Amino acid sequence: MLPRIIVCETREAFDRAAADWVSARISGEKTVLGLATGSSPVGLYRELVGRTQAGELSFRHVRTFNLDEYVGLSSEHPQCYRRFMNEHLFNHVDIEPTSVHIPDGSTDDPQREAAHYDELLGAFGPIDAQVLGVGTNGHIGFNEPGTPFTARTHVVQLAEETRQSNSRFFDSLDEVPTQAITMGIANILESREILLLAYGAAKAKALQRAFSETPTPHVPASALQLHANVTLLLDREAAAGMKGAL
Ligand code: F6R
What we know:
By secondary structure, the chain is α/β, with parallel strands linked by helices.
């Protein structure tokens, strides 16, 4: 199935278009929203905070599930995804703290935490609207190349390419965790709608592999071809990877 594609000319337009997509989906009653971390959604969260503080939007009826969390970082570590989400979104909007769900990466039993998170998703899901980024190696969430499309929430060993890429946020590569807890591809595909954000030339190749070849676990994002309601939000440089589809 071909995704819908929106190409933006500026970063501001990209962030606003992402916020329009989310705003339209959380304006009704009781939305379950799937969220990502990383650099792609930072401007989206800034927009959502601005709209909420201006009284145009409310998170009162929103329940969120984040895609993933590093294993082994305390919740106060600057790169912990819970802290990222608090700083970029949750501390600034009217969401009920009990409606926020992020795997607990500081647990001493990550397998059990993954199973617990999957049960929560089963109880409150399916996710109505899922925001995704994509790794340069085609990962979605922390589902690295080779992950079966049937995988549910699980503990992953992070690929070297992912650790290298994320080391820009840490003092050194050694400090980047080696494991994470992530929603699986099966959980992601159960979402009713998906918005994939890809900004910059570094994402073009991953998009090309994800959408121009037969779906394969070697390119996790290619699983999105199996979903009927995916929108790709791109800038011109990332869109170069989707040339055939534009
Ligand atoms: C983060 C996540 C990852 C990122 C991906 C792209 O929660 O699930 O899959 O979306 O690594 O990261 P950025 O946006 O930093 O390029």
